[in-house]
C-alpha cells in the first residue's frame, strides 16, 4: 500500500489550522526523525462516528511503525479528564495512531501520560476542517495543493514590497515556508527560516526546477531568469515536507520567480540611479577647491553625508574593465558590517568612499580600520582586478576632499605595485614615489621619451650611465665605482650625453627634469 | 466485623460506621437475632430505616433510636398498621447498621434497598421497581415529620432532600408501606451476611490473596499524584495515580467511588463495589481519604446480582446515573467529546 500521507508532512503543511504537537511534545526525542505514515484521516464530530481501522498494521521490514489513521475531532477534548482518557483509549483500540483535537486542546498531565502509555500521537489544530482539507490535498489531490500555494504566491505579490528582501518576507509569510534567494556561493537573502548549507548545496543545480532533501528539511528551487544577475535560484523550504508538497512548491516557486526577477531589476535600477546621484555629488564636491558651496552642502546633507568629524578616504580603482556598480555592491556588502560610519559611491572606473569618525581616531583604531580596508581589498581582488589606495585621516570638509584626493593618488601608485598587492596607504608612500606618480601620465611620458630619444637612438648603454651619474650627485668617481667602469669611460660618456641632448646638466632644473624623465622611462 | 464489612460495601461513601458501632455496642442487648426474609410471615408490615444527608454531620449529631419514634408513629397513622419488622434502606456504610437501633423491638431482617452505598432515594430497589404504596417519613427537625407518598421516585428524592435540608443537613428517614414478602423480589437480601463475611477478611495479606478472600478483584495499586474536582459537577472528582506497574490509574468518585480507569480503559465501574485500602494502615478509605502522596490499593467486589437482573435496574447505578460519562463498561452509554 502506498502511504502518501504522513504526520510530519501534515504538520509542515501551512494551512493545517495551526496544527501542533501536544504529545509527544514538539521537540521530544521520540519525534525525531521518524516519519509517521498515516493510512487515512477521519474527521469526526463525536466518538460514535469513530471509524474502526482494525488492529494497527506494520508495513514491511524496517517500517517506521504501525500505520493507522489520524482522527480529527471537530471539538476540543472533553473537559473531564476521565472522559479524555477514555476517548484516547477508544481511538487507540480502534487502530488509529494519532488524534487531533480542536483547540484549545488543554490536556492534563494524566491524559498526556495515558497518551504516552498508549503510544498515541496527540495534536491540536485551531481549524479541524482546514486540517482535514490539508490531509486531503496531501493524499493525492496535487492540483488543489498546488493551487493553494499558487494562490498564496499571488496574494503576497499584491502587497507593497520595498525591495527584494521585503518581497521574500511577504512570500514566506503567505506561503508558510522559508524562502531564500541563493547562488552557488551561498544564501544571498532568506526570509521565514534559515536555509542550512547542506540543503543549499543539494538545491543548487542548473536544472530549471530542483527538489532536494537534506536531513530533516527539504525544499524546491527554480532558476531565476534575471537579465541583470546570473546563477540565482529561488528556494522554498521547510522541515518535514513530503514529495507532494515539494512538487507543489516547485510550481509555486515557478510562479513567484518572475516577480522576484522583476523586483531584482527594479532594485537594480534604483541602485544605479542612487549610485549615479552619489557619484555626481562626489564629483561636484571634489571639484570645488575652496570647500563645498551651499548647494553642494545641502545635497550632501540630504544624503546623510556629514563633513564634520575626521575622514579617512579610500579609492578602489579598476585596473582593467569592470562594472563599477558590481564593484560598489561588493564593497557596500562588506562595509555595511563595519562599526563605523561609511559612505561609498562609484567614481570613474571604480569606487570612492570614506570612513567618518566623530573624534580623531587613535592610531590603534586607525590601524584596525586600515586593516579592514586591506581585507576588503583582498576580498575584492578575488573577483575584480583593482588597486586600492587609502588616504590620511583629515578633519572637516576640506580634509575629506584632501583625504579622498590622497587616496586617489595612492590608488594610482598602487596600480603599479604588484609587490604591495596593489594596495597602498598614502602615509606609507615615499616622496619619490609620490613624485613619480605625478610623472606617470599621458602627457609626461611622451615628453620624457622625446627628451631622451637621442640617447635611446645612440645605443642602450647611455641611459643607465646617465641614471647612475644623476643618482650619484653628478660625481664621476662614484658613478664609475657603481657601474664598475673606469672614471674616464664615465667622463667620456657624460660628455657624449651632454652633446647628444644639447642640455646643460649643471642647471638644477634641467638636471631634475632629465632625472624624472629617466625614472619614468625606466619604471 | 459487621461494621467493617459494611465499610467494604460503602465503596468510599455511606459514612463512617464508627460512631454507630460504639453506640450500638453500649445500648443494645447483644446478641441480636437476624431473620432471613423467608423466616417471617410474608404479610408482616415492615419498615426500612437509615440516615440521609451529610454523613459528616453525623459525627456531631449522634444517631439515636428515639429519633425514629415519631417517624414510626407517623407511618403507623398513615398505613393504619404498626410495623413489626425493620430492615436497612442502604446496605453499605453506617446505614447498614442503622436498623440495629430498632432491634429487637422490631424484628431485624437481613435485607436492604441497595446492596452497597448509594446516594439517592430513586436508586433504591423499591423505588427502581416502582413498588406501589410506598411511604417515606422524614424528620424535619424540632420534632416535625414530613410524610411523602409519591409515585415518582425522583419526587421522593427531591422531597426527602428538602426535608433533610430543613432538618439541618442530616436526619433519620423511614420508608414504610411494604411487607416482608415484598422484600424477596424488590430488595437485596443477605447483605448482613455478606458484610459479616467481608468483615472477617484479614487485610494484611498480599492484595491478590485479599481479593480472593473477599470474592472480588484486585484492580491495582499506586500512589495518588493529584486529586481534581470535575468541571461539570464539583462533587465529582478524579484522582490520578501512578500505578505500581507503570500504568496510569484514574479513580473517579462522586459520593462513592464510581470507576477506575487503567490507561484510559474503565477496568471497574459502579455498580461494582470499588473499595480503596491504605495498605500501611489497612484502613478502608472513604472518598475524602484519597489525597496526594497516599498509597492506595483498589479492589472491586461484584455488584449484587439484583442490579444486573434487568436493564432498567442497571441504568440507575452505572456511573452515567451520577452524570459521569465515559466510564461505563460494556453496554453503558459512551462518552462524546
UniProtKB/TrEMBL annotation, chain A:
InterPro entries: CdaR-like_regulators, CdaR_GGDEF, PucR_C-HTH_dom, PucR_C-HTH_sf. Residues 290-413 form the CdaR GGDEF-like domain. Residues 462-520 form the PucR C-terminal helix-turn-helix domain. Belongs to the CdaR family. PANTHER family: CARBOHYDRATE DIACID REGULATOR, DNA-BINDING TRANSCRIPTIONAL ACTIVATOR ADER. This is PucR family transcriptional regulator. It comes from Galactobacter valiniphilus.
